[in-house]
Amino acid sequence: MKEIKENPLFIRSLPLLTEQGAFNLQNAKVALFGLGGVGSYTAEALARSGIGHFELIDHDLVEPSNLNRQLCALQQTIGLPKVAVVKQRILDINPQAKINIHQVFYHAESSLDFLPRDLNYIVDAIDSVQSKIDLIIQAHQNQIPIISAMGTGNKYDPTGFKVCDIFQTYNDRLAKKLRSELKRNNIAQHLVVFSPEKPALNSKKTIASLAYVPAVCGLICAAKVVEDIAQIEIDQ
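User: That's the sequence. What structure does it adopt?
Assistant: Structure tokens below.
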């Protein structure tokens, strides 16, 4: 445990994590699907929490329209693969982190065979509904813990997000679609980060987004992953 005590990542967090919790994080393998407004902030928080192994999955390049909400989007990163940008950022935080990048579009025909079989957690920050459904089903079939981000677009209030079961959600079109598909596949429980705020806009052409709304959702995803892996018990 001496290595953990001397690791600068844990100097301020160790009293809260405990040595065993920090050890768990350092040895954990987490897969992040989607590195946009939600996923990029999840990656940041997990890196600063000491996660030791990352699998990064995203097919997109950084675009100018990402600048208002995605941590990986800077003038100097426009045009670069998001997986490469986030990998470098994680390594700038924790040079000892092991990171595999997969610049692919995860879809219904995909499987999880390209990932380590001993994953500790999956974070689902995918936008595509069908891809999201398939990833959730695959994770449950492989008994891998997973948390999914629900809708963050067309919303104002970052304080409304919370962790709950998907079958407790409401006022969320994405969650509604997922609930019916999960029922069809006999999945009775699934962990999500969700806000009950009704969308302020109903346009399907362009989904509006503010800088801090998806960011908060991503940070809450990271918090739940850290709590579960480090086995933190929080008194409510």
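The longest strand covers residues 29-33.
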